[in-house]
Amino acid sequence: MPAPRIAWKTRTSWRAKLLKPAQPKLVPISEGMAKRFGYGMMLIPTALEVDAMIRKIPYGGLTTLPEIRRRLAPGGNHLSAGDGDFSAHRG
Question: Would strands 41-44 and 62-64 be described as parallel, antiparallel, or unpaired?
């Protein structure tokens, strides 16, 4: 007797996630994060903003998350979550 088939939900595509209507948020830095980043406000950008910023990296180029933070944050007085390097690997 064959096993019953399970109907899986279709996953949301990356394009749909990128185009989801959203606004960037400025939120206060929590107590736990303040040890690492200090007190103040943190920018949570939209996926489309981050995608546009990464697409500006030239092929083979390298940029760091602190550089992306500086470019995304209005006035440069805000942090953005994350740490490390991004490298453009397109081809």
Answer: unpaired
Q: How far is CA 75 from CA 33, 55, 62, 78, in A?
A: 21, 22, 23, 8
Least confident span in 2-6, 10-14, 44-48, 57-61: 2-6
pTM surpassing 0.70? no
Q: Tell which residue, 55, 78, 54, has the closest CA to residue 68.
A: 54
Task: Report H helices in the chain.
Answer: 14-18, 31-37, 47-55, 65-72
Domain ranges of the chain: 22-87
8 Å CB contact between 80 and 68:
yes
